């Protein structure tokens, strides 16, 4: 995501760009293809609300900056209520094709195993940095690699879902069209079914970490069994919450818990189980997930899994131009900088590409104001966060400076968020216009 967006932005500024991608020559545990920008954990870019949601605002900023990732996401969008979900294969294929076709871009397949000493480089290695490059990064930064574990949700063939039990509905019927309002498949559970499911989840055989391998989880992508270990009701108040849904087969009966599935491709032949990232072993997954009403005969296109992610302690290592302080010919972008999420990673690529192009062309370019979503993220990771407790971060309004004169608390939230987004859009627009004047 980040490397693709960085290349696109720099190339559009008139800079010749070479993308080094190790796949398909060198694969990873999670990737299935050699395409750029392949989505592995989910097919969702989360909320597309640019007035009341920080990630939706980030969508808006990237669209305003002619972002490739957002353009291809919009072109391959799937119904998902108020969220932006995409056909992941078509999306990655389109990103790859657009970059191949760009006259200023060349793509070279092959693994980079060491950090170059000269030239302008953006290191956007994504969530699965190869061991050799990871070791080179650790040596260059003088610190041990920081890491956390990330998990993947399973994908089910639509034809194997029992629609006499499940029904189509977005939570609270959200969406402007009937297709949007029916974007999710819902599987209801009674209290007894939920309790039996939790028992099986807790007892299932899990993937064990390698000896000496330690890391934390990112809270936004916890395996469901880890959530269940925190309390038997945790899932029922998280990904399995039953609110805003009415069983089309039995409207009078309120489900105790609901499992939702979201469309994963344009054909509608695949659905992923929302929020069901897992580290259960494959055999355990099939037996436990088939306890879900409507999925008793489910056939899985992909089972869940867990993988290690690498990220830098960016507040101590990167300057405000996203350069490694000790080796300023190297910029870092994407998840390796300590942002979490597809959109956040791509946004850091967008910024790194523009900053690199400006430096190569002898132009001065500062990061956007911290009042914008992009600026709030870059300011957080390059100085706003506490280096001692630095963890990967999603974009959120807690990273934004307050707007004076607005009411705090939940009652004032709607007006406050609208003020944040209005201010951000104006400031980001000014940032883009300043670059046009410079060019």
Automatic annotation (TrEMBL):
Instruction: Give the matching InterPro entries.
Output: FAD/NAD-bd_sf, MnmG-rel, MnmG_N, TrmFO
Q: Which cofactor does it need?
A: FAD
| Main localization category | cytoplasm
Keywords, sorted A to Z: Cytoplasm, FAD, Flavoprotein, Methyltransferase, NAD, NADP, Transferase, tRNA processing
* Gene Ontology biological process terms from the UniProt entry: tRNA methylation; tRNA wobble uridine modification
Write one Gene Ontology MF term.
tRNA (uracil(54)-C5)-methyltransferase activity, 5,10-methylenetetrahydrofolate-dependent
Q: Where in the cell is it found?
A: Cytoplasm
Indicate the segments forming the MnmG N-terminal domain, all copies. Answer: 2-363
Q: Does the keyword NAD apply?
A: yes
Superkingdom as given in the UniProt entry: Bacteria
Pfam families per UniProt: GIDA (PF01134)
User: For this UniProt entry, which segments traverse the membrane?
Assistant: none
State the SUPFAM superfamilies in the record.
FAD/NAD(P)-binding domain
Q: Which reaction is catalysed here?
A: uridine(54) in tRNA + (6R)-5,10-methylene-5,6,7,8-tetrahydrofolate + NADH + H(+) = 5-methyluridine(54) in tRNA + (6S)-5,6,7,8-tetrahydrofolate + NAD(+); uridine(54) in tRNA + (6R)-5,10-methylene-5,6,7,8-tetrahydrofolate + NADPH + H(+) = 5-methyluridine(54) in tRNA + (6S)-5,6,7,8-tetrahydrofolate + NADP(+)
Q: What is its EC number?
A: 2.1.1.74
Give the CC-aspect GO terms: cytosol
Record bears the keyword Flavoprotein: yes
Protein family membership: Belongs to the MnmG family. TrmFO subfamily.
What's this protein's function?
Catalyzes the folate-dependent formation of 5-methyl-uridine at position 54 (M-5-U54) in all tRNAs.
> What protein is this chain from?
Methylenetetrahydrofolate--tRNA-(uracil-5-)-methyltransferase TrmFO
Organism (species): Aquimixticola soesokkakensis
This chain is encoded by the gene named trmFO
